Amino acid sequence: MTNRERVIAALNHQQPDVIPYNIGFTQRARAAMADYLGDPDFTSRLGNAFSFLSTEPPKAWREVRTNIWEDQFGVRWDRSIDKDIGVVCNQVVTNDNLEGVALPDPDEPGRWAGYEGALANSEDAFWVVNLGFSLFERAWTLHGMENLLIAMIAEPAFAHRLFDRILEFNLAMVEHACSYDIDAMMFGDDWGSQYGLIMGINLWREFIGIRVRKMYQAVRARGKYVFIHSCGKVDELFPELIDAGLHCFNPFQPEVIDVFKAKREYGGSLAFYGGISTQKTLPYASPERVREEVKRLLDDVGKGGGLIAAPAHDIPPDARPENIATMLEALQNQ
Predict the structure, then answer these.
(1) Who's near 149: CB < 8 A, 6+ residues apart?
(2) Domain boundaries, position 223
């Protein structure tokens, strides 16, 4: 089977010949692993199941000051410590300027300029279009986390309007991306902490769930698979996400979600992408323990399809290179 065939089998809850997998790295972890292997190009030979396409236009990011990067929405990120994402350090949307803030143009041709060439040159790839910071995250990066959470209680009309403006942008992005021969769209939108939903389930339903359904149904109406990346303990949402049209949940963190219980309860209607601990196993376990945990994940959660094995997030810099190498060996030699 090709990687694409394996992923489609897994998403359709059928057993592939081997469990598909996908490994991502933070910048520091990638550099450390390249040094460990003596191979700066090692990521090109991982055998990853997914090929990703971005929705961002050319020059979506610009460095406005040293280590301060501005995205296409005008949000500024301090990357002096976190080189991969950064920390928001400005406020674009206030209570007074919501209607006056111009969102990026989803029709900008540059966003889609590379799609046809990429899709034409790799027929066996499973193509995922990534729309990160897709709703809640986009709202709080624009308005501020505390400000948004307060507005969801104290100024609901403002919060609804902010979410609606973002939803309009997202639906236009879905329409464009799904007009190409892609396989799936992945929405990035962290809703959870280590202990549960950041905003609680009632506010999630009122402000997020109703709009998530519209995005998922727009993708499904165009015959594509729907993925969500949402960190934290959000498994209480699985029934509602399934009902909204979700096919695959990521990152499937074993520190906060019992991955084996989740497979038993939801494995007939939801696929999972992740499952390998980046908080405990890769940084702190022995290579032998890594091998045991990966094998159990593949054998138990991967049985009957429904799994794309992966670390629960891009591998962090404190992960031990020997543990990463052991994980890769276990995945590549099924």
Answers:
(1) 140, 198, 199
(2) 3-58+94-332
